[in-house]
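REQUEST FORM: STRUCTURE PREDICTION
Request ID: SP-0412
Submitted by: Lab K.M.
Chain count: 1
Length (residues): 162
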Amino acid sequence: MSHDGQLIFADHVGRFYARQYGFPPMAGRLLGYLFVCDPPQQTIDELGEALLASRSAITGAVKLLESYRMARRTRGAGERVDRVSLDPVSQQPQNFDSAVHKEHAALFREGLALLADAPPDRRAPLAEMVALADFLSERLPALRDEWHAHRDELQASGKLPR
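STATUS: Completed
RESULT:
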C-alpha cells in the first residue's frame, strides 16, 4: 500500500471515529495508520512525520488511544524511545461488558423514580432506555460467546489468521 493510500485510509478512520465516538480526528487518524503502517511499531517522531502532525498532537492521540486500550507503548532493552503499536486487546470485543448496561439501567431507573407521578408519555423515553439496557445486559454475554465460536471457525478454516 502506498503512503498516500495509508494516509487516505487513516483519514477515513479518523472521520469515522470522530463522527461515531467523538474522538479527536488525530486520534482516529493515528488508529487508522497503526492498522496499516509498516513496521507496525513506530516512534512518536515517525508517526508525526508519516501523519504530517506535530509531536504533541501524536502524543495526545497516543494517550487517548492508550486510555481505550487501543494502542500501547513499548520500549526494547537499551532503547531510548517508545514505540507505539496497536494494543492486541483492541482486537478483542470491547463492548460486550454487561455490567456497563446494568449500570445504565440503574441510572435510568433512578430517573424513572423521579418521574413516578408523571404521565406515561413523559416516562416513556426513560422506560425504553431501561428496557434496552436490560436487554443488552442479558444478551451481550451470549453474543460474545457466539462471536468467539464464529472466530474460532474462521481461524480453523484459514479465513482468519490465528
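NOTES: The two ends are 23 Å apart (CA to CA).
Reviewed by: T.R.
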